[in-house]
Design goal:
CATH architecture of the largest domain: Orthogonal Bundle
Helix content: over 70%
GO molecular function, one term: DNA-binding transcription factor activity
Number of helices: 9
DNA-binding region: 68-87
Distance between the termini: 111 Å
Shape: elongated
CATH class of the largest domain: Mainly Alpha
InterPro entries: Homeodomain-like_sf (IPR009057), HTH-type_TetR-like_transc_reg (IPR050109), HTH_TetR (IPR001647), Tet_transcr_reg_TetR-rel_C_sf (IPR036271), TetR_SbtR-like_C (IPR049445)
Domain HTH tetR-type: 46-105
CATH topology of the largest domain: Tetracycline Repressor, domain 2
Structural class: mainly alpha
Keywords: DNA-binding, Transcription, Transcription regulation
Number of strands: 0
Length: 220
């Protein structure tokens, strides 16, 4: 039989452990609750960002290129502060929208590289890129601008250039395009065609694109 002193020690230890377990359980519950709240906040932020971008795309499709952040907040049903947390200014919003366009263009360029006929792949890529620029003047401006290493799209631009370079290499080996033309040249030429088509109201799109393609052929 343990002495009364030992019994008191065991009683204190038992009570202490019980209290500690209760505190640990309460702490674990609080941490789990906070983690759940943070997850929900992150999911809510993702939904808000997607909603803002969708409204901005709809505004562009409707011909409104102003992309006023206050108006977009109202149409998206979110607070103005929410919009500015995601996009501090119009340029940041344009960059985010352009990132989506870049992803589309990169996918098209990679498909063109895998095409059996590299010249046909190049033609499809140029048509696709031209139409995206005509649909979205802000994307055209981003594509035409000098590379900004700090921008959201700088890595995407490099990935696009890599895919286009691979396509041009294949086309050159097949004798479809002249030597000395690189991805940067093609980008600038396509931006020039976009300006020409836009200034002419779009009626001579196919002609200007054909002139570009013919100009890329090797000299006869």
């Amino acid at each position: 039989m343990p002495s009364s002193g030992v019994s008191r020690v065991w009683l204190c230890v038992s009570v202490g452990l019980g209290s500690g377990c209760g505190l640990l359980a309460a702490y674990a519950g609080a941490v789990t609750s906070r983690a759940g709240q943070e997850t929900e906040l992150r999911a809510d932020a993702v939904r808000n960002r997607a909603r803002i971008l969708r409204i901005a795309r709809e505004q562009l499709a409707a011909g409104d290129t102003s992309l006023q952040l206050n108006a977009i907040a109202r149409l998206a049903g979110v607070g103005v502060g929410t919009v500015y947390r995601h996009f501090p200014n119009r340029h940041a919003l344009v960059e985010a929208l352009s990132a989506e366009r870049f992803r589309e263009l990169i996918a098209e360029a990679q498909a063109a590289v895998a095409a059996d006929d590299p010249r046909a792949g190049l033609h499809r890529l140029l048509c696709f890129g031209l139409d995206r620029m005509l649909d979205d003047p802000d994307f055209a401006a981003v594509l035409e601008s000098a590379v900004d290493a700090g921008s959201q799209t700088s890595d995407m631009r490099a990935e696009l250039d890599q895919a286009v370079t691979g396509l041009l290499d294949r086309a050159r080996l097949s004798g479809a395009i002249r030597d000395g033309v690189d991805a940067e040249d093609v980008r600038r030429l396509l931006c020039g065609v976009q300006h020409a088509v836009r200034s002419g109201g779009g009626a001579r799109r196919d002609l200007y694109l054909d002139v570009l393609l013919e100009g890329l052929r090797p000299p006869r």
